[in-house]
Specification:
The chain has about 575 residues and is an alpha+beta fold. Among the domains are: about 230 residues, FAD/NAD(P)-binding domain, CATH 3.50.50.60; about 160 residues, Glutaredoxin, CATH 3.40.30.10. The chain is built from 16 helices and 28 strands. The strands form six sheets. Strands 1, 2, 8, 9, 10, 11, 17 and 18 form an eight-stranded mixed sheet that branches. It binds flavin-adenine dinucleotide. Flavin-adenine dinucleotide (FAD) binds next to helix 1, strand 9 and helix 7.
Amino acid sequence: MPEKFDTDVLIAGAGPSALVLATLLGQRGITVRVVEQRRDIIDYPRGVGLDDESYRTFQQMDLVEETLPFTIPHHVMRIVDANGNVIMTNNPQGEPFGWPRKFGFLQPLIDNAVYHGLSRFDNVTVEFNRELTNIEEIDGGVRVTVKHVTHEEGTIYHEDAIEHEYDGESQITARYLVGCEGGRSFTRKYLTKEFTGVTRPTRWVVIDVNNDPLGAPNVYLGADPSRPYVSIGLPRGVRRFEYMLFDDEPTERVEDDDFVESLIHDHLPEGTKLDIIRRRVFVHHGRVSDVFRRGHIMIAGDAAHLMPVWLGQGFNSGVRDVTNLAWKLALIVKGLAGDDLLDTYDVERRDHAKAMVDLSLTFEDLIGPTNKKIAFLRDQAAKVVNLSPQARNFFSDMKFKPMPRYGRGAVVDQETLEPGTAYKNNTRKKVARIFTARNAVEKKSPVGSMFIQPRVNEVPGVRMDDVIGREFNFIAWGQDPARFFTDEQRAEFKKAGVTLVACVSPTQTDWAKETFDADTVVVSDLTGELKKWFDKYAIGIVLTRPDKFVAFAGFTADAGKGWEAFKKAASLAV
Ligand SMILES: Cc1cc2nc3c(=O)[nH]c(=O)nc-3n(C[C@H](O)[C@H](O)[C@H](O)COP(=O)(O)OP(=O)(O)OC[C@H]3O[C@@H](n4cnc5c(N)ncnc54)[C@H](O)[C@@H]3O)c2cc1C
C-alpha cells in the first residue's frame, strides 16, 4: 500500500452528482479531487424538475440561499390530450421532508451554485481539462491516469470556470474512486460490461427560450399523437419546449429556425418571435448498471443509471446516490467503519434506481404513442380512471413515485433486531403482542424509509434538520433518550457522531430543558407532526442515519440493542 495516497477520494466528472458528493465529503473533512474533462461545467439546458428529497440534501450542504433563486416551488405536472383536456394531474401536497414536493429549476444555474459552494473547502479541488483514461487497482486504493485535454478554439465555456493547464498525462493515487462521468462513464465500463436496459429509438428536440412567450406556469406533457410535446414554465422567464422528431426529420434540421418555429407554431400566439437559448436533440435510455461498487471503486448518478426525462428523476437519482454514499465513505476514510459498509450502497441504491427507470419508461409509453387509435384508447381509459377519486389522488399525490425504502443494507429489522435487513419479516408480531402498540395505524415498519422533517420550536418554527445536525440521531418521543444507553455506548456516540434528540410537545419543553441530559437536544413539536409520526408506528425511538433514513425503530427499552445491531449492519468500528 502506498504510504500516502494523493487524495482520499477521487471523483471523475464534475456534473451535479460529483459536485454534491464533493460537498458532502468536503463538509466532513475528507480530501477530494475532482477531475473533469471539459473546460467548464455543463452549461446547456438539462434538468428542470427537482424533488423535495434532493432539496433536503441542498439544505444539508448549506446551499439553500444560493440555490433557491433558481427554482420555482410547487411545480404541477399535467398530461393533456390532443385537445388540451387534462388526462392526469400531478400536484402533490404537503411537505413531509421539509420542502415542497416538486420544484421547477434551471440545472446549469444550480450546478454552478454547487460548484461555487466548493470554494468553502480547502480540502476539495476541481481540476478542469483532465480526462480519466485509465484505472489500476492497487493495494488499498486505485491509481488512475488522467490526460490533459486541449479544447478546440472557440469552445463556449463558463465565465467562472477555473482552467488548469497540465501537460500530457499524469497519475493520481486515491483510496477511493467514484465515477460520476455520466452515461458514457469510463469507470462503469471498467467495472462491468452490463448496462442493462433499453435505448428508445425516438429522438426529441429540447428548445429552451427566454422571455417566455406563453407565461403560464407549470408543466404540460402533451400526449398529442400528431406530435407529442412538452411545455414547461421555468424560473427566470425561461420556457422549455420538447418535441418528438419523426424518422424522416434529420437531426440537423433543428438548426433551422423555420423548422423549430414550425414545431412550436401551434402552441404560440400568431407572429411570436422566439428568443432561443439553446436547442439539442436527445434520445432516451432506460438503463441500470449491474454493479455500483467493486472494491475501492464506485459509480453514481448517470454513470450508474440512465432514465427518460418525463418524471425528472435523473438529477434527483444522482443526488440520492451520493447522499447515500457520502456518509459511508467519510466514516470509512476516518477509520470509523469497515469497507463492507460500501456493499450497502450497492444494494440500497440499485433496486431503487431500477424502479425509477421502469416508471420513467412507462411514462414515455403513456405520452409517446403516435398511433391515433392507441392514443384514443388511452384517453378513454384515462377518463374512466379519473372517475374514481382514489385513482385521481393516486396520481395527484404522486403515490406512483417509488420512494426509496431500503429493505436491505445499513438497517436493523424492527421485529427481530437482525442487522442488515429492514423487513424480512414485516408482520411486527412482537409489536402486536404488546397492548400499547395494538393501535398502530401503520403496520409496516418505518425502517429503511426517510424520516420526516417538520418545522419545530417556537413560531414560525425552523426546519428540524437545522436543529439536530447532519450526522446520526437517536430521536425519542417525549423523554430523554440518554437514559436508555450505557456509558460505553454514549462514548461510542461521540466517536460516530450520534446526537441524542428528544421531541416533546410544546407543553413539555420547559420540563425537558430543565431535567434532560445537557447533551440531549430538545425539540419542541410545534406542528404536532412528530407525535403523529411516532403514533402512526406506535414506537418510541428511532435511529436516523446522516442521509435521514431510519436505520432502527422500536420501543425505547430496545434502543441499546438497536444500536448494537446497527453497528454490525454498518460495520462500525467505534
Ligand atoms: C433534456 C433533459 C432534461 C432533463 N430533465 C431532468 C429533470 O427534470 N430532472 C432530473 O432530475 N433530471 C433531468 N435530466 C437528467 C439530468 O440532467 C442528469 O441526470 C444529470 O445531469 C446527471 O448528472 P451526473 O452528474 O450524474 O452526470 P453529468 O451531468 O452527465 O456529468 C458528467 C460529467 O462527467 C464528465 N466526464 C465524462 N467522462 C469523463 C472522463 N473520462 N474524465 C473526466 N470527466 C468526464 C462530463 O464532461 C460531465 O461534465 C434531464 C436531462 C436532459 C438531457
